[in-house]
Amino acid sequence: MDTQDKIEQLQLVFKCPIRSKAFSGPRMQAEELKPFFHEFWIVIKEPDPPVEEDLDEESQVANKHDGKDSEDTDLPNMEEECSSDEGTDRDSEIEDQTRGPAGAPRPGQKRTAPPLVQASEALNDLNKLLHPPRKKGAGHIDPGLNSFVRSQMEAMKSMLNNYIRPLSRTYGAWAASSIQAAVSDGHGNYCARRLRVLCRQFIQDRTFLPVNPYGSWNESILVDEDLTNDLGLYLMEIGKEISAKKLMDYVNSDAIRSKHGIEKPISERTACRYLNTLGYRWSTPKKGQYADGHEREDVVYYREQVFLPQWRRIEQRMANWVQDDVMKESTLMPRMPGLEREVVVWFHDETIFYAHDRRKRGWYHKDAPAKPYAKGEGASLMIADFVSARFGWLQSPDGKHTARKVMRPGKNRDGYFTYEEICNQAIEAMAILQNFYPQYEHVFVYDNASTHLKRAPDALSTRRMPKNIPKNGTNWGVETTKRNSFTGKVEYQPDGKPAKIKIRMADACFADGTPQSLYFPEDHERAGTFKGMAVILQERGLGDMSKLRAECKDFKCAPGLNTCCCRRILYNQPDFVAVESLLELTCKAYGFKAMFLPKFHCELNFIEQCWGYAKRTYRLNPESSREDALQRNALSALDSIPLSSMRKFANRSRRFMDAYGKGLNGRQAAWAARKYRGHRVLPASILDELEKAHIV
Ligand SMILES: [Zn+2]
Fold this sequence. Notes:
With 696 residues, the chain is α+β, with helices and mostly antiparallel strands.
């Protein structure tokens, strides 16, 4: 292993970009790192610098001004928009504040870390601000801080604790303490640097609190999940009309600024960056985009008549989480009592991590089907997984068995998981669940991708069926790819094309459930020959079909009339309607249920938000074109999502289910979800409110 490898390993542990220099400081080195990375320190350890001084990282930032150090900006996903000038401006801005009135050293000079005594006094004062004691008696009063300021102060507190406590692994090490605090808060190097600035300021001047959180940190306001959610819902609400200008106006509106404590209005350019960060890409409009398909007649029909009734049936047996404390199960909405087991719903999806995030043309949400990478886009990694609000990612309690599938599209140029891989993944998932969580009833929820809906080759289908019995000496069957009966592998003709064979279609069934063969029985004069649609329908007691046409032109029958042609009648027969996909059949064979989301309804699949969270974490890593780094960083980003966040995401999805269940359309649901953020269900008065707000 070379040094770079080891640094990358450390980055995995600390989940933030790390430069070897940061670990050559006097204290954060050998002894601290030894237990974790025995090899690491031996290789990169540099000669000990003077012990009295702490080489603070800010001085490394100064190196950047000389152009020696080109890596690391705060949020790499915004890099495309940020010129390098901007990056250095930001850094120097921080430094200016850091230097303070005392006229501390110029960039490039070593700086003395604040003395422990001073840091300890500052920590005491910070504690008092966070938990003001009551005038009389025990207990605390609410300091009345907004959530952002509060979280900043908590992080400062944890950094100072790391710094002054002799038991801390980073005791006395200023920069390392900040990294520890940032990392345990789920952030990276930028946050660490910011913490050092804040702590220094606070040590010098107790009135200096992070009350202006977005002043110098404007780029990062999207670290606030609540704000990100608000913006996401607003964008969904305006659908096709998305523009940077609109987002800018929205963020700059009084309501949003006061709600989230944003002091400076943002510019249109910043709004562009936000759009990018929020997952919108400038691209050419394509058919079937979110806004077009969401309220399409067939999609709405499926949502209301198929999906929601299924959901309602299992919803009563799902656990609910307390709104403000999602780690607690709600007792207000108890699950239905009795013998029925709790239902755990596992949402499935696939996503792609790119080594380099690329910009496309037009602001479209990238929830369109994941595309494999084109040449020049850099390496990419496809991941398919399941997640539940109860347990998080699908895995055994010890984490040794997981259902996660990882694929490099580079190896397989079509870049998608095949239905076989999807079925195999389901089988592995079911094995884990049966082994480790048999006390629950498990339901899989997949999206409506064609891979998931693929049916067996011999599955019932009226496509291509002739109306009449084929002529003597001929027969009708389904043409399919020939597979070796032992290995299951596709067989090829001498010309290299897959061999085709005709197979019989599977049996249908009568209304009473008894099977109906579509081929004449052994004792019939045309034994084994296809019966044709007319005979099949007549056998079902639907009368004489000889006068009825085989099908209306192009199967575009007049709406409402379901007796116009043989194909339409057969098409609507319950057994032809209820044909299950291979995936459904696979799950059923193991006693599991699979459901399919309505098309274009990614807001119902909370795994989407998990991908988003993981990708934000992933982007904190330094850009690397190395495939192994890509995989490691992507996987550790996925594992960094706290269960509490997952449950919040799940509550949000259920709010949408509830909205559609109350008869709201997509736009109304987005409006309602934004208004009732944090609630799992919407109030009964929601329809009146929509009317008042003129949301149609
Ligand atoms: Zn017809």
